[in-house]
Design goal:
With 261 residues, the protein is mostly beta strands. The protein has 1 helix and 19 strands. The protein has a domain of 180 residues. The strands form 6 sheets. The protein has a 4-stranded antiparallel β-sheet, with no helix packed on it. The radius of gyration is 19 Å and the shape is globular.
């Protein structure tokens, strides 16, 4: 969305004969989704804050592409990325290309004004994980760089995470678990299917920055890497990475840091 409250546009483009095609005959499509106002911090723009993530591959039943929309209390939106199944039911009020819509709560109360994210949806199988990056303060932080450095150590940071499952039989989203107490300021979460954990980076007032590993099935905390209160442990929009031997490659505002366990 280019304007506050306007509609965002999701498009599938096809590369054909060395050119980009927008023709439905070639398999291209477009669909609108809900935008929203400018967030007070972290998130950029009025539409989605997430890079589109694919869900469903090979012989999997449903082939989707998923994002979070631009609403103040974001929704997880799934689009049919190829041919729309003949038995698919159109979601009321939405384009037929949209397979399902889920209102994200992160376990936060209905009075919570903002639940929004600047991070990609983390997908493992038909499970999708999202975080809340917004905490409303009494002063908007219009400079995103200042905001990403200040939030946590100086300005109270956001909390909230949720894992949602796509039900391939009923073709709808179902919430698996929520954590209203988990902090994820601005780093892109990452999932390890082998260890069945999803990792976030956030701020803890007592111990400072930390990488937290949550159980992919239950949401329970299984791992904590305490990085301390020095802002070199601020990941600032980077992705959480682990090397083949299990070491953490932490991409901080001060450059990459290798953490050995």
């Amino acid at each position: 969305s280019r304007t506050p409250g306007g509609k965002g546009l999701m498009q599938k483009l096809i590369c054909k004969d060395g050119k980009i095609s927008t023709s439905q005959a070639d398999g291209a499509w477009q669909a609108y989704y809900d935008g929203g106002p400018q967030a007070p911090c972290i998130k950029l723009g009025h539409g989605t804050g997430s890079t589109p993530t694919l869900m469903g591959f090979g012989q999997d039943k449903d082939k989707l592409v998923v994002i979070t929309d631009g609403s103040k209390r974001m929704k997880l939106v799934a689009f049919w990325r190829d041919e729309i199944p003949s038995d698919a039911q159109q979601v009321a009020g939405y384009d037929k290309r949209i397979a399902g819509v889920h209102e994200v709560t992160c376990g936060l109360g209905t009075s919570t004004e903002w639940i929004q994210s600047e991070q990609s949806v983390v997908v493992g199988g038909y499970d999708a994980f999202v975080v809340n990056n917004i905490n409303v303060t009494n002063q908007e932080i219009n400079d995103k760089i200042i905001g990403v450095i200040a939030i946590g150590p100086i300005v109270k940071g956001p909390q909230g995470a949720e894992c949602v499952r796509w039900n391939t039989k009923e073709k709808k989203w179902e919430s698996k678990w929520t954590r209203s107490d988990v902090s994820s300021v601005s780093m892109i979460p990452a999932v390890s299917i082998k260890s069945e954990m999803v990792f976030v980076c956030g701020w803890n007032d007592a111990s400072g920055w930390e990488v937290t590993g949550l159980d992919w099935k239950s949401g329970a905390t299984r791992h904590r890497s305490i990085l301390g209160k020095n802002n070199r442990a601020n990941g600032a929009y980077a992705i959480i990475q682990y090397l083949a031997n299990g070491d953490l490659l932490f991409n901080s505002v001060a450059g990459p840091i290798r953490v050995k366990y």
